[in-house]
Amino acid sequence: MNLQAKLLLSALCVGALPVAQAADFEEFGRVVRVTPQVEQVNRPRQECRTEYVQVQQPQQQRSAGGAIIGGIAGALLGNQVGGGSGRSAATAAGAIAGAITGDRLDNNGGNSGGGVQEQAVKQCRTVDHWESRNNGYEVTYDYRGRNYTSLMSYDPGQRVRLRVSVEPAQQ
């Protein structure tokens, strides 16, 4: 093949290249409207607070040992004080006074527990927490006098880049 034929063949190939690539090209469309696609999402959370409540303390068991020992000691002391018929009355009075004193000493002065005490109680509950989340954008754009709508992941601004594909019609 001579040089002229090679140059002619190369020129034909290079000339045919834009025709083959002209099937797909990029253009721009004018954006008419952009509508954010927003959804509501529930993200529940815990809310806690501390309350103070009155709690009844359990009563302690009372002991009879102090009353018995106190009664015996009081009777012995009362018996030493009196004389004649007064001795019996003094013994009885000493026994009663000793029993009361021994009971109070053994059982903390008559306080047997059962009091009321404040106690902290943590109260928690789950509450709904709604958030708005953007899922994308519904974009309406004009291309050659017709409006088209497409969902996009971003806001394209004033114009949108379009990929245009051209194919011959089938008969």
Automatic annotation (TrEMBL):
Keywords: Membrane, Signal. Residues 1-22 form the signal peptide. Its main location: membrane. It is found in: Membrane. The keyword ATP-binding does not apply. Transmembrane segments: none annotated. Pfam families: Rick_17kDa_Anti. Residues 65-103 form the Glycine zipper 2TM domain. It comes from the Bacteria. NCBIfam families: PRK11280.1 (NF008437). PANTHER family: OUTER MEMBRANE LIPOPROTEIN (PTHR35603:SF2), PTHR35603. This is Glycine zipper 2TM domain-containing protein. It comes from Janthinobacterium fluminis.
